[in-house]
Amino acid sequence: MSEITQDRTRTSARRDTIVLGATLLALVLVTGLNVTFAVAVMPNLAGADDLTFVTTLQRYNDNPVFPLSYTVALVLVVLAPVLLWGSGDRAALRWALVTLALYVVVVAVTAVVNIPLNQEVDDAGLGSATGLADVRDRVEDAWVAANLVRSLVSVAAVGAVTRALTLRAAR
């Protein structure tokens, strides 16, 4: 192997490792947000009155950290296998593709279940106690269940990208 080819290979491996490391960080952030809601926020809101439940979720829905972190993670999760495609590191590529598949599930659950439920909470008026109770009854259990799914799948995605990173960094 020529010196130029070796330099390109090292540069490519370094770039891939940086992207996989950034992907890992982004997925850990998303996973942390999901798991925090699963183990702390929603269980604590379960004992709150309907007005507190609705207004608290409305405030969270206004937070730009959620869509930004999900979007950054998605871009990186897509970029990682694209960059690995030409690397010759098939094992790291396979794990990056597993990461992509898992994160697609997270995004799909979020888009199909959590975001519409969040929108329903956002649209809730605060004037009627009965209206608040109705919104909560329609939203809470489905939101909690979907968030549990995306939390568990997010943890699996973190494991998969960690495996891709360790394989790529070892080359």
On the 0-100 scale, what is the average pLDDT?
Answer: 93
How would you sum up the major sheet? none
Number of structurally distinct domains: 1
Judged by helices, strands and strand pairing, the structural class is mainly alpha
Instruction: Give the strand tally.
Output: 0
Instruction: Tell me the span between the first and last alpha carbons.
Output: 15 Å
Could you spell the SSE succession in H and E letters? Answer: HHHHH
Strand content: under 5%
Helix content: over 70%
Number of discrete helical segments = 5
User: If you compute it from the alpha carbons, what radius of gyration comes out, rounded to the nearest whole angstrom?
Assistant: 20 Å
Given the C-alpha coordinates, what overall shape results?
elongated
Unreliable stretches: none
